[in-house]
């Protein structure tokens, strides 16, 4: 197997396929690669390439023959979406990652990075959550469909490394936010949902904003530009068997987050908590010591990241 900390810089002219380049994560990775001088990115919209179609993915790899692959394509959503569309969350994600990983291997891709999520860990994992906590207990029921698919992706990368000595690695980001996030009123994650709610309340001169849950769960947030930086770092600096956590190492309560978003947006009304609604996992903080020991740390503070994201929201969503 490849050396865990093998340092191998990607050639600036090498063909890199970023799957999911229009999403929150993929678009940030494209920005980062372009900023760092990579000139040969292969980008396909869903209408140009359906990643759930095995034959379409196979012919794409046969034709394009990328050297590197970053797999950021996935069907994602918050608690409400996971509860409503469980078949989509497990089925679509399994199809995408199985097709891309297998075709990447069979067509001679040099290295692949598979991206998952912190929801792969057990609901009551030790905090901060180390990589070794994977598969040590039951998952959070509200997103187990998505989590099972992502765990399968990690294991597929490991299996291809064992059987084929192929350099497939996995990164597990914490909760992400930033430009190109999904601000849909029902199918979005907590941070963009809060931003939209406060913005609309401010625009409508509302007296209060009602937020799901108690506000007590602890969460960690990473700006997607930091994740993109970590992805390029891992592609060039890591070739290990185990997946790698990518987080900020800073946790806030949902209540603190809501107050911060409220401040950034400039909403002057009241915050009301609807305790009849589910909270999800009580605490979720990644142990980022493995990535830190390799030499990577995040650079964007939550306050700066929120201000930047709200500016993007005003310019692109409103």
Automatic annotation (TrEMBL):
Stretches assigned to the NAD-dependent epimerase/dehydratase domain: 16-247
Instruction: Look up the domain of life of the source.
Output: Eukaryota
Q: In which pathway does it act?
A: Nucleotide-sugar biosynthesis; GDP-L-fucose biosynthesis via de novo pathway; GDP-L-fucose from GDP-alpha-D-mannose: step 2/2
**Which top EC class is given?**
oxidoreductase
Key words, A-Z: Isomerase, NADP, Oxidoreductase
- Return the EC number: 1.1.1.271
What family is it from? Answer: Belongs to the NAD(P)-dependent epimerase/dehydratase family. Fucose synthase subfamily.
Q: Specify the protein name.
A: GDP-L-fucose synthase
Native species of this protein? Camelina sativa (False flax)
Q: In the UniProt record, what gene is named as encoding this protein?
A: LOC104756122
